Automatic annotation (TrEMBL):
<protein>
    <submittedName>
        <fullName>Carboxylic acid transporter</fullName>
    </submittedName>
</protein>
Length: 145
């Protein structure tokens, strides 16, 4: 009903609202609720992205483009776990423990923000016909030579 672009943008912005509860909770209930809501909106965002990518892909690359894009993104983002861990270890709390909250806060806010901005700048292809028009039909006669 809303379209995929609006759904992705809305999920990103709504997810940003719950990041403080996930990163800086004051109780176990706040942490549980915040982490649940962040994951709801992460799934709301990244659950729509593959279908949106299929719609905006050229007909010739419709099956290759989304898969290749996701795998290249995995390749590029693979060092992020090590970067976040190193940032958390170098950013210490007053009692000497590692502070992983701020690296997670900045990375999640940046990801939600970048996805929302790029989706906003993109195009909506809702109700696009995904069938290739020049594909052979099953009832076509074949010639025997």
């Amino acid at each position: 009903y809303w379209g995929r672009r609006f759904t992705i943008i809305w999920a990103c912005l709504a997810g940003l609202c719950f990041v403080p509860l996930w990163i800086l909770p004051h109780s176990l209930v706040a942490l549980s609720f915040g982490s649940f809501m962040v994951m709801v909106f992460v799934q709301g965002t990244w659950g729509c992205i593959p279908a949106h990518m299929i719609e905006i892909s050229p007909d010739e690359f419709r099956s290759t483009f989304p898969g290749m894009s996701f795998q290249l993104a995995n390749l590029i983002s693979s060092p992020s776990v090590l970067i976040l861990a190193k940032a958390g270890e170098s950013n210490r709390l007053p009692d000497g423990r590692s502070n992983y909250a701020w690296p997670q806060l900045t990375s999640l806010c940046a990801l939600f923000g970048i996805v929302a901005i790029l989706t906003f700048l993109g195009t909506e292809q809702r109700a696009k016909n995904l069938e290739i028009s020049d594909a052979p039909t099953s009832n076509a006669k074949s010639e025997v030579v």
